[in-house]
Amino acid sequence: MKKPTIVNLCDRNFKEISDQIQGKHLTNIQIGSYSCANYFIHAIKYIFEADLREFVSNGFDLVIPTLPEHYLKILESKEFRVCCDRCRQVVINDYGVLEYLNGKCDVRMGRMFFKDYRDHRYKEYDTAEYVGKAKAVLNFVLNSGFQISAYENDIITQNYCLDHNKTFDIYLHYPYRQISMSHICEYASIHKNIEDKYIPDDSCSMQCFDVKVLSPEYRYIKIGKSVYDRLDDRYLENIKGDYHLIITPEW
Ligand SMILES: [Zn+2]
After folding, report:
1. What is the rounded distance in angstroms from the CA atom of residue 223 to the CA atom of residue 182?
2. Which pLDDT belongs to residue 44?
3. How remote is the CA of residue 236 from the centroid of ligand 1, in Å?
């Protein structure tokens, strides 16, 4: 059975987000980032200033990227606290933030916790039957006393068997599958000397989010620091069990 769908507006410029939500009466959206703490700071300021409730009936989910240590002070900002209070669910992508927010909000574990290999060049990761590796991660999280209510992942193959855990809601991303993520922004290093290039999580002026690099056959797309491939509906046909879809509008 299909459950309500979420529209994924992470890692987009804010003009595009406003265009997507205004006048559309969307039910569920998510905002934030799967790849960049620098972008995330701008996103929570945008949410803080916009009244999303006017446009989105069930509020929004807030996606927090993997936060490097020198960005942890974001979690104490007024903007972040207000976003947490207003959102429906917080999507967390690393253990540090999971620990920090434990018990304070409704938590969904993000796709970046689940390290299943994603590569359509190998049939094991494209068409073959594949049982997800979520169970070990979820068991660890529960045994460590973390409180979560849901988890999400990419669709790993065309015969993806969700390792179903009835305690949690499952969310699956479609049609863009995140296959790689880096902590280096090349725009942040352009004008720097060689020894200062490639500093992880260095901040840029957000140029990277206005550049989309497409492979010729439109199978791969790079946005910000992430590379995605694009799935088609063969990846949805054989999924059994109840799940929510997180749909990313076309990049
Ligand atoms: Zn950048």
Report:
1. 11
2. 94
3. 32
Distance from the alpha carbon of residue 65 to the mean position of ligand 1, in angstroms: 14
> What's the one-letter identity of residue 244?
H
- Altogether, the residues listed in the chain come to a count of 251
Q: What was the pLDDT predicted at 40?
A: 94
User: CB-based burial of residue 122 (10 Å sphere; 0-12 exposed, 13-18 middle, 19+ buried)?
Assistant: exposed
CA nearest neighbour of 46 among 7, 71, 75, 82: 82
Q: Please work out, in degrees rounded to the nearest 5, the angle formed at the alpha carbon of residue 179 by the alpha carbons of 112 and 113.
A: 10
Q: How far is the CA of 34 from the centre of ligand 1 (A)?
A: 13
Q: What is the band of 75 on the pLDDT scale with cuts at 50, 70, 90?
A: very high
Q: Distance, CA 28 to ligand 1 centroid (Å)?
A: 27
Domain boundaries, the chain: 6-178+231-247
pLDDT above 80: residue 55? no
* pLDDT (0 to 100) of residue 186: 81
The Cα–Cα gap between 244 and 139 comes to 21
